[in-house]
Structure formats: structure tokens, C-alpha cells
Model the fold of this input.
Amino acid sequence: MAEAAKGSVQKKKRSLRQQSNRNMLLSVLLFAVLVSTVFFAFQQTKAGMQSLSGLYGDQLRLEQFKASLPNLLLPLNDYTMTGNSQDVPKLKSAADEFQTLYTGVDALPSLSADDKKLLTQVFGLMREVITISDDIVSGKIPSGQANNVAVVAQNLVFVAQQKLSTVAEHLNSSLKSDTETKREQVDQQSYLILGIIVFLVILLAFLSRSLVKNLTQTITDVARNVTQTSAEILQAVDQQANAADTQSKSVEQIAIELRQMSDASR
Done:
């Protein structure tokens, strides 16, 4: 019976070891799922922040372009008032700057088709301003009319700025909409991660509880088997002691009988 109990204990130990290994493997897999989920959410949030950052950058470049439009008027007004030839290079520099900024703004990825049309109209208006300044400098427009024509150029710049303001409003609206969308996505991802964490904690707690329960049962069975085996050993020892006592009494009785037989033979 002791051998059977020992075999049962060994079997339970193997079962516990297998369950422990299985729990460890599941824990590693669940941790990998958690890390993957967090990484995916982080990448999505990062992409969203980059998208918003791009919109902010586009809006800033558009505002810079809008603020640069009057740069063409400053040297033009100075030239019409003074006729100073030193203002001519400033006009050319302002025209080159406009062309450079326009090329950059025209390539903004966040502009819609309507925004592109408005930007093309702005370019046409500013090209008119540049043409007016060239005609004034070259003398095609008489100096007596230069002041009046410069006022026309100012009005063209004002109209161009209004059109750019419309484009800026569109970008701002897109920025607000995208910001709200990204915020909702971040909230959803946060709830998803929280739900996964809660699920993993509950599952790990269940696995740990099951392992502890089986371990406790195994320890109880081992203790019971040890107690039973000890009782059997004590019983066997007691039986051996009784047998030895019986044998001792038998030997003593035989000795007495032999002594009596010896006395009788005398």
C-alpha cells in the first residue's frame, strides 16, 4: 500500500509540474499579447500625432506665406514716392521670395482641390502685382500714374490675403476635425488596452488559483499518505514486538520445562 501511495504522489507531482509549465507558457504568451497591443496603440497614436503635427506645420507655412505678401508693396511704394533705384533690387528680391514661398505652399499635402484653386488665384493676383511693379520700374507706366497703379496693386494684395484666409480657415477646420478624431481613437485604444489588462489579470489570477488549489490538494494527499504509511509502519512494529514477546515467553516456558525435566531425571 505504501508503494501505491508513493506512486500516486509521484503522479500528482508530475501533474503539478506540467500545470506549472503550462501556466508559465500562457503567462508569457499573454504578456506578449499585452506588449503587442500597447505597441500597436503607441504606433497609432504616434502616427496620429505626426498627422496633426503636419497639419499644424501646413497651417503655419500658409500664415507665413500670407504675411509675406505685403513685402512686394513696401519697396513698390517707396519707389513710386522717391524713384530711388536702390528699391529695384528689393522688388526683385521680394518677387523671388514670393515665388519660393508659393512653391512650398502649393506642395502642401493637406490642401484640398478647392484650396488649390484658391491658391492658384492668389498666384495670379500676385503675378499681376509683380507685373505692375515691373512696369512702373521700366517706365511703361508713367510716374504720374504710378501712385494710382500702386493703389491697385495694394487692392490685389488685399484680395489675395482674403483668399488665403479662406484656405487657412479650411485648414483650421480640418485640424479641429482631425484632432477630435485622433482624440476619440486614443480614448478607444486606452479602453481597449485597459480591457485587455483586466482580462489578463483575471485570467492569470484564475490560473494561479487553480495551480495553488492543486498544489494544496497534493500536499494534503501527501500528508495523508505519509500519516497512513506511518500508521502502517507503527502497526507492523507493534506486531513484531508482540511476536517477539510471544517468542520470548515460549522460550522461557520451554526453559522451565527443560529445567523441570532435568530435576526429574536426577
Notes: The chain has five helices and no strands. The helical segments are 2-68, 73-82, 87-106, 113-138, 143-265. The radius of gyration is 49 Å.
